[in-house]
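Service request form, structural biology core

Requester: graduate student, group of Dr. S.
Request type: structure prediction, single chain
Budget code: on file
Notes: please return the result as structure tokens.

Sequence provided:
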Amino acid sequence: MKEWLPIDVYIGGAEHAVLHLLYARFWHKFLYDIGVVPTKEPFQKLYNQGMILGENNEKMSKSKGNVVNPDEIVESHGADTLRLYEMFMGPLDASIAWSTNGLDGARRFLDRVWRLIVTDNNDIEEKITQNDRADDLEKVYHETVKVVTHNFEDLRFNTGISQMMVFVNEAYKAKEIPKNYVEGFVKLLSPVAPHVTEELWKLLGHEETLAFAPWPQYDESKLVQNEVEIVIQIMGKVRAKLMIDKNASKEETEQKAMELETIKERIEGKTIRKIIVVPGKLVNIVTN
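Core staff response, request fulfilled:
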């Protein structure tokens, strides 16, 4: 009892507040008074989740014919798709209408994750390497671990899943993906898609279950943004964009902007009257 009580968080619908939630506290306080349980309260935190409405934005009801049968969804789309979609619908405490299109989107995302890691022959993709890091993915990977970790702890599953989608998009663009990044991502996805991630974990060469693997850690130093995107204007109109060191001087920023081919072409044959540089933001070239 002392090890398990009080419960960290009680999640239940607001419609239960007067009935079993009230009785749960009543009975717990009675048991505490007679010395059976060691805590005054059974729960440390109460969280009321929202309700999934029918596609017509009304409460699901057999009489209205808008009930979604989860068994049918599991049969057609898979259990992981259902879990992922429900967590991605919106804030956990909001009441949101069911969307078949949204469900299809959740399945497409899981399919993209699988294709990113596994070939048609059920082998690991060649772009997944044993390298410890990849410059083009390092920041977004550590950012993903941080965002998902904190959002899941705060029950903000939808924003955590959104960040995982960002990582998958960037991973598709990368020439290679470190295996440890892939394993970390699979761990992040496992709470909402446990079946597909267990399969991926096994294909990645692990014999033990993913359920006992340690949660991935992020390095705060890898989240520092060393470069910023600035706009290059000619006569106040944006003509190009440039990634540059955030600490670049005015002179260096101006030089980099003037070296761009698109800018060279547009100012060719023109007299440059002035170049306005706002470090970290823009370069505006004023011509005749």
